[in-house]
């Protein structure tokens, strides 16, 4: 396999996306995503780290991997310690990738005026999804100190930081202790007092029911669920394709009459059930060119 073709491609993309990222005001972006089929790797720049993920197929062998490592070092001018390597392979019948033990490295990335903690090599994902930068910026632009924002499936709270930083009062919901703690750390990292904001370690569906009973209403709701989720903390499992309409309907009950719900998914074959609900797809406005392959889709939904 011709490593020079890979290296040239990487060099070109690194230069181009590196430049565009300055406009996005970030040092977290994707440079390469399986552009050449014989090199099934994904490469992200995360501040001073390069996150190199190998998608296990029969195509990549040891030699290819060694060559890719050398190219990454050359193109980004980094040493071995700055390269976080993760192997991802599909578990039989599963929709998620398994993680293989690896070195764990922490850093902070920046996006706009904010900083976020990254932990690479520990979990499947690093704690931040750069692909949603445009929606985060948009949310920060449309809220002010009178806004109430709800961030469901919040993960490490990146949307919450943008909304709270812009003055909104934010409720952050995730059923994982790890991620709620991480979201709180991200608030602290940005000197945003956690007082006055709510952090709910709870299953989204239980939260939606309880919040409706309490009569709480929100101006802006972010609903960015995983493709599939199952846990002891939930009553059943969640499948975005099967369950998006009832989930959105339940969420809309918490939206003010003039509020806006942003629903997003990374499901590759997602079909919005338009017969059931009216919405506007805004994906072309929320995606950036460093994710040509792994694009999310986003809809704006009003009551
Ligand atoms: C795809 S991430 C969401 C990404 C996030 N919106 C962001 O922009 O960074 C999925 C998150 O959903 C959480 N999660 C999965 N099932 C859940 C449930 N039933 N209730 C609450 N959180 C859940 C996981 O713990 C994880 O943090």
Describe the model.
The protein has 303 residues and is α/β, with parallel strands linked by helices. The chain has 2 domains: 3-120, 2-Layer Sandwich (Transcription Regulator spoIIAA), CATH 3.30.750.80; 130-301, Rossmann fold (3-Layer(aba) Sandwich), CATH 3.40.50.150. Helices cover 32% and strands 29% of the residues. The protein contains 8 helices and 16 strands. The protein has a 7-stranded mixed sheet with strand order 10-9-8-11-14-16-15, with helices on both faces. Strands 1-2-3-4-5 form a 5-stranded mixed sheet. A two-stranded antiparallel sheet has the order 6-7. The chain starts with a helix and ends with a strand. Bound molecules: S-adenosylmethionine (SAM). The site of S-adenosylmethionine (SAM) has 18 residues, from α4. Residues 129, 132, 153-155, 158-159, 174-176, 179, 203-204, 224, 226, 229, 234, 238 line the site of S-adenosylmethionine (SAM).
Which tags fit this structure?
alpha/beta; Transcription Regulator spoIIAA; 2 domains; seven-stranded mixed beta sheet; binds S-adenosylmethionine
Question: How is the topology of this model organized?
Answer:
Elements: H1 3-24, E1 28-33, E2 41-46, E3 49-55, H2 62-76, E4 83-90, E5 97-98, E6 105-111, E7 114-120, H3 133-142, E8 148-152, H4 158-165, E9 169-174, H5 177-189, E10 198-201, H6 204-214, E11 218-223, E12 228-230, E13 237-239, H7 240-252, E14 255-265, E15 280-281, H8 283-286, E16 297-301
Parallel strand pairs: 3-4, 8-9, 8-11, 9-10, 11-14
Antiparallel strand pairs: 1-2, 2-3, 4-5, 6-7, 12-13, 14-16, 15-16
Helix pairs in contact: 1-2, 3-4
Bound molecules: S-adenosylmethionine.
């Amino acid at each position: 396999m011709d490593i020079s073709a890979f290296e040239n491609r990487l060099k070109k993309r690194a230069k181009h996306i590196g430049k565009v990222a300055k406009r996005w005001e970030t040092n977290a972006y994707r440079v390469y995503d399986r552009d050449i089929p014989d090199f099934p790797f994904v490469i992200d720049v995360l501040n001073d780290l390069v996150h190199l993920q190998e998608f296990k197929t029969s195509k990549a062998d040891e030699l290819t991997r060694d060559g890719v490592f050398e190219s990454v070092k050359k193109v980004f001018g980094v040493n071995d310690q700055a390269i976080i390597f993760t192997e991802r392979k599909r578990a039989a019948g599963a929709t998620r990738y398994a993680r293989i033990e690896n070195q764990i490295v922490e850093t902070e990335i920046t996006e706009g005026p904010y900083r976020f903690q990254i932990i690479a090599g520990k979990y499947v994902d690093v704690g931040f999804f750069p692909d949603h930068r445009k929606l985060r910026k948009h949310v920060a632009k449309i809220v002010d100190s009178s806004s109430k924002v709800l961030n469901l499936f919040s993960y490490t709270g990146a949307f919450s930081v943008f909304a709270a930083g812009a003055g909104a009062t934010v409720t952050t919901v995730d059923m994982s202790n790890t991620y709620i703690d991480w979201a709180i750390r991200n608030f602290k990292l940005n000197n945003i007092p956690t007082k006055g904001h709510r952090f709910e370690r709870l299953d989204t569906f239980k939260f939606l029911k309880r919040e409706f009973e309490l009569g709480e209403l929100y101006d802006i709701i972010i609903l960015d669920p995983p493709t599939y989720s199952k846990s002891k903390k939930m009553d059943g499992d969640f499948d975005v394709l099967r369950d998006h309409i009832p989930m959105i309907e339940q969420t809309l009950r918490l939206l003010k009459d003039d509020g806006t719900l942003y629903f997003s998914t990374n499901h590759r074959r997602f079909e919005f059930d338009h017969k059931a609900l009216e919405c506007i797809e805004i994906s072309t406005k929320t995606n950036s060119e460093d994710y040509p392959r792994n694009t999310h889709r986003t809809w704006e939904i009003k009551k």
